[in-house]
Amino acid sequence: MNRLCRREFLKLAGACGAFCITCPSGIAFAAGGESFFFIQLSDTHIGFSDPLINPEYATTLEKAVAAINAMEPQPGFVAFTGDLTHTTDDPMERKRRLTSFKNIAKSLRVKDVRFLPGEHDAALDRGYAYQEILGPMHYAFTHKGVAFLAVDNVSDPSGSVGGAQREWMARELKKLSTTDPIVVLTHRPLFDLAPDWDWATRDGTQVLELLEPYQNVTVLYGHIHQVHHKQTGHIGHHAAAGMMYPLPAPMSVPKKAPVPWDPAAPYKGLGYREVKGNAGEGAPVLMEIPMARV
Fold it and tell me: What is the mean pLDDT of residues 61-87?
């Protein structure tokens, strides 16, 4: 971590008391004295093809993959937090797009790659094609002492996590200490950011109630195609930039729509995230990597 990032982190950590975003680039955790980092990408929308919104739609993800492959050291893993593909009513085309995405992701040097559905991938068929091609839509894993919960809040067309999955979360959480570091990966925000724009989870309050007893919880999500940070009590929520096109700030315009490509500033508003930290600093640091710099 460079000095500027560390100085800004300490300043902001004192102000907000939790997980603070400080510098462009990503997130890192330390557990048992061993630090690591991973990459979060979101909203890659393979199958999107509007040159007025992104004339480089066919190669944007490949460019990001090449940049991640050039990293030294390599991240511990890579996580894609939904809307891997762009929506289609054609079931066979949905499978083709998911397969195309999977093939691009296979070119990552890092072989520990985690996937999560977005509503574009899974809402129309309740995740049938997604599960066939990419696997389970919710699951738990541990990386170097940090517990991760990948939560599906999109395959239910109502935008809910649902009772069965909340019960699964409760069982997984019971395996942990209330002081263990926990990261929740999801697509939609778990709080009501902009319900009229579908930027919410219908039973998000119930999900947060499950997480409330745990002292070190961070939620990383996508869906809104922009960096956004929110605290609900002691839980930090952090949206990542999208990879295909940006969206306007919440409720800032009458109608939500992709922001057109700016030829004077290619890839403006697009990027992905690295997460980095070390045991001596306590909280992880999120760093955003803009595609314009890749």
Answer: 97
Q: In the chain, at which residue ranges do the beta strands (DSSP E only) sit?
A: 20-23, 27-31, 34-41, 78-81, 113-116, 139-143, 146-150, 181-185, 216-221, 228-232, 235-239, 271-276, 285-290
Integer CA distances (angstroms), 103 to 62, 100, 146, 174, 278, in order: 11, 5, 28, 36, 33
d(CA 201, CA 289): 27
**CA-CA distance, 171 to 259, in Å (whole number)?**
41
| Percentage with pLDDT > 70 across the chain | 86
Q: Is residue 143 classed exposed, middle or buried when 0-12, 13-18 and 19+ CB atoms within 10 A define those classes?
A: middle
Task: State the CATH class of domain 26-293.
Answer: alpha beta
- Domain coordinates of the chain in residue numbers? 26-293
pTM (predicted TM-score): 0.89
Cα Rg, the chain, nearest whole Å: 18
DSSP-assigned letter for residue 272: E
Residues in the chain: 294
Q: Name the amino acid, one letter, at 132.
A: E
